[in-house]
Design a protein that fits this description.
Layout (H helix, E strand, L loop, with lengths): L1 H17 L2 E10 L2 E9 L9 E7 L5 E6 L10 E8 L7 E8 L3 E2 L3 E4 L2
């Protein structure tokens, strides 16, 4: 059983490693809207394989904002970009931030507590 588990972990690790990761994120309120500064880490390879955006999602998965990334960041890793004017539903205490790349799709969720 341990061998099977180890093999499954080894097989899954490369796929996760290739997915875009949110390394760090912050949110700050300005009036009625929020600004998010998000640091993405991904092994961008060029125009055919790069992190092309990230989402701000409500806990139920509703999309609240999207930051499109227009070019690869091959020599700039990790990199930080911002998204302003995001409206959050009342009583929101957390948001999910999820990066996306052209080859692997969505990366893992990053949970950000809103204060």
């Amino acid at each position: 059983m341990r061998i099977l588990f180890s093999l499954l972990c080894l097989c899954a690790a490369p796929a996760l490693a290739d997915s875009p990761q949110i390394a760090f994120a912050t949110g700050s309120k300005s009036g009625q809207t929020w600004r998010f500064d998000v640091t993405v880490k991904h092994a961008d390879e060029g125009w055919d394989h790069y992190a092309d955006g990230w989402y701000i999602l409500a806990p139920d998965g509703t999309e609240l904002g999207y930051r499109k990334l227009l070019h690869p960041h091959v020599d700039e890793q990790p990199f930080t970009r911002s998204l302003s004017n995001v409206t959050l539903p009342a009583n929101t205490s957390t948001v999910i931030i999820r990066a996306h790349d052209l080859v692997h799709g969505d990366g893992p969720d990053y949970i950000l507590e809103i204060k």
